[in-house]
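Reviewers of the previous submission asked for a worked example of the structure-prediction workflow described in the proposal, so we include one complete record here. The input consisted solely of the amino acid sequence. No template or homolog information was supplied to the procedure at any stage.
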Amino acid sequence: MRVLPLLRDQDALMPAASHFAPQNRLLAVMPQADRERFFADLEPVVLSLRQVLYEVGAPLEHLYFVEQGIASVLTTMADGSTIEVGMIGREGAVGVSALLGGRVSAQHIVVQVPGAALRMNARLCKEAFNQSEDVRSLILRFAESMMNLSAQTAGCNRLHSIEQRCARWLLMAHDRIQSDVLPMTHEFLSSMIGVRRPGVTETAGEFQRSGLIRYHHGQLTIVDREGLEAVACECYLIDHDRLQLLL
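From that input alone, the workflow returned the following structure tokens.
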């Protein structure tokens, strides 16, 4: 599968990165001097639903500082099946492996909730990483959070029920986009948590009958967040606390 081109039709509506307060949390908490020195020429890009940002083996040429939406980090098996091992919203950036010595992507990264990002050449970002202790510290904190998230997800996928994992995933996405409505199909959610589609369909039906969610024509609406929290496993609270510390 080839990497889809970034949509550019809305770029004219977005101000230059140096002229507004970034919504991306990594950029927002950087010292202003570092933002002006290293990040003044960030390129606003639109992230479209199901857009592939990186394929396995693709050169790590850019970082995407997410401003709106969510990107999923997927591990792909030989038979084509996938499972999500990471989720990136406005708390982080796609492509940070390029700053840690990586040359090509080890994961498949796709936009699961559309939005926007600020794109930066990986070489230029590596210069900022090397020269600024503050930039380096922030990027390493985020990289650590991604490793912790992947480890927690591995344990969750092995030990917890489909219902618990679905509730956890929905809550994690809700935390990152701050919207009750998610574009979602049962097929896509099943690939995210690594289960067969019938299991997700049954679980989503149970959630809907219980009044936790509403699902219609590819859009899932969270109706009862507290109810989802009661269903989710302890992994969600661990993820939530780590995200709050990162932000």
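DSSP finds nine helices and nine strands in the chain. We consider this example representative of the routine output the project will generate in years two and three.
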